[in-house]
Amino acid sequence: IKNIGKVKILHINSGNANAYTGKQGMDNVKKIIQCLALKYYCNPKHIIISSTGVIGEQLPINKLLSHIDKHKIIEGRQNWASLAKSIMTTDTFKKGSYRECYIGKKRVKIMGIAKGSGMIAPNMATMLGFIFTDADLNSSLLKKILLQAVEKSFNRITVDSDMSTNDMVCLFSTKQVSCGNLKLANHKLLEQFKLNLEEITIDLAKKIVVDGEGAKKLIEIEVTGANNNSEAKNIAFAVANSPLVKTAVAGEDANWGRVIMAVGKAKAKINQELLSLSIGAFPIIISGKLVKNFEEKNISKHLKKKEIFINIDI
Predict the structure, then answer these.
(1) Number of H helices and number of E strands within the chain?
(2) Whether the Cβ atoms of residue 143 and residue 149 lie closer than 8 Å to each other
(3) What is the spatial distance between Cα 43 and Cα 168, in angstroms, rounded to a whole number?
(4) CA quadruple 31, 33, 38, 43: dihedral positive or negative?
(5) What backbone torsions phi and psi does residue 180 show, to the nearest 5 degrees?
(6) Edge-to-edge strands of the sheet including 167-178?
(7) Residues in CB range of 225: below 8 A, 6 or more apart
(8) Tell me: the pLDDT tens digits for 241-263?
(9) Which one is predicted more confidently, 127 or 299?
(10) Catalytic annotation, residues
């Protein structure tokens, strides 16, 4: 997301992360870029490279270069399902998301695909995400909008609390639909576009969590009343990454005290007398006091579902 500007070619390889491969790994990347630049007559700076898969093994460079040399472009072909499937590694299903919206009176499309299921934390994850739109918006503006969407989605998921070796999210515009000379990310005409982009990134992020290695449930944690977003995020991740909370949810055990324990260890200012906790639609604690008619069986029933909701108000 740091890079902005013109892109001619996106090259993705799966099955090999090209991580911890040293100078030879870097040389292989340069060979791929050189091969692509010569074949498609483009500036090497206009080529994006991404890899995902096993760590510590060298790319089968001769096989890759041979495939690039033989590859032929099929005009007008857009097989998103095939592309999403081709980048899978330990994923169990292909991940895609699509929206249509308006920028002013112009109807535009947004299509996103992603892969990822392990090493999912703390910012993005071991994941690749590629989003495409036909809206003609400048690179600087797209970068600002993408950063906002990523912070609310890919930067707020965790499966195993292990950090990523390979992660990337890109937003591309084919510039097919003219949208006027928009320059500000908070422009009123961009509200629908931003909302739809955010929905796509959240949808893809949730699919990555659902497909987490060994995952059986999706836990969504909402934190309100924090001093700032940073503290709210710290609390949410403290709960989400707690092995005790995970085992309670996996075992469908209404041991809500584990959630409170995790809140207490988070790097955030917390007043216990103001703390409230709900699991599903059932309040357990309100303003620091246990709800009088609280029944564990309601929580246990909610924990049997595939999607678990925890609300923490501090």
Answers:
(1) 9, 11
(2) no
(3) 21
(4) negative
(5) 85, 175
(6) 95-103, 106-115, 127-136, 167-178
(7) 274, 313, 314
(8) 999 999 999 999 999 999 999 99
(9) 299
(10) 126
